[in-house]
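@channel sequence for tomorrow's demo:
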Amino acid sequence: MSDKPLALILAVTSDIGRAVARACAAAGHDLVVTARDRQRLDVEVADLGQRYPVAVQGVEMDVLDRAHRARLLEQLPRTPDLVVCAIGLMPAQDDAQADPDLAERVMQTNYIAPALMLEQLAELCRERGSGALVGISSVAGDRGRRSNYIYGSAKAGFSAYLSGLRARMHDHGVSVITVKPGFVRTRMTEGMRLPALLTIDPEHVARSILAAAGSRTNAIYVKRIWRVIMWVIGLLPESVFKRLKL
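structure tokens (generated this afternoon):
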């Protein structure tokens, strides 16, 4: 058995997930990585194995499938030292409004299923007495806005879940970290007009996650200006806020 720390990256085929996996491997972590698409997963596993001198295991997993979540736990070689949940789905708000099935999938993918997965992984870490679990949430969850309230509501639920899990794990040597990246240049945001000063690359997010996991902090806004922005937005009276086209 390898003596390297083990990182579990949920959704390695996402841009942020890929960047986190590479950062963990560069830091000397063995990897277990997941994705829904077996072919794309195999490509990522092969690429990581060629780039870095670490062990890389791929597990096909659709987080919405309870059997898949159980199978992942069975295939883990040991309890991970670091878990990073990069699972997410963000369609256009208009599409989610018009399609109840899509809206439900957004809520399941961004909150319910990842929370159920992390709950089981947290229990493994609790039994061992160590570990760090990182959930990638969003500034969209800080306050519901007309432009993305379906996605934002799911991320709000996920942030609240992570906060509660953090409190429960506090006495057991397990840290739970909420990461709010803000705007990130990814396929998910492709085509959006993003403000350059507020937008970062996936590699920036990955570096921040590793730094946060090492410091065992509670929650971070990857680009610190978002903390100020969301504080101001949070102060706006509802009578004013509901008139803004945010």
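heads up for whoever presents: The chain has a mean pLDDT of 95.
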